[in-house]
């Protein structure tokens, strides 16, 4: 695994957080990830008057991943308004899993962890492929 510049990733996540649209919760979130080809993708949360429609920052990040050329996520960090590292919500761990290299690293509230540690025994595309055989 190449060296990961966590400070650079956190700065990119913080920049994204400032662009969040969170008028209802007032809880701004920014996410950033290193992609397998070395580029960085970002996302911010986008809320909605119909609260359940809210998009987490990770949704925007995964959209940018594909819009900017695809690839897989190597390292990920997510921050809140205070610039504190936060955990991706359960739904977003699932979202990230499908676009992550095996063993993708996350900066978490308890240190650097792998995607498998934060989403053990994940359901994924392989389960569908196996069922189709
Ligand atoms: N939020 C994210 O953007 N990502 C997460 O992983 C956790 C939660 C957002 C959704 C909502 O706009 C706000 O944080 C409060 O839940």
UniProtKB/TrEMBL annotation:
InterPro entries: CMP_dCMP_dom, Cyt/Deoxycyt_deaminase, Cyt_deam_tetra, Cytidine_deaminase-like. Its EC number is 3.5.4.5. Residues 4-126 form the CMP/dCMP-type deaminase domain. Its cofactor is Zn(2+). It catalyses: 2'-deoxycytidine + H2O + H(+) = 2'-deoxyuridine + NH4(+); cytidine + H2O + H(+) = uridine + NH4(+). Belongs to the cytidine and deoxycytidylate deaminase family. This is Cytidine deaminase.
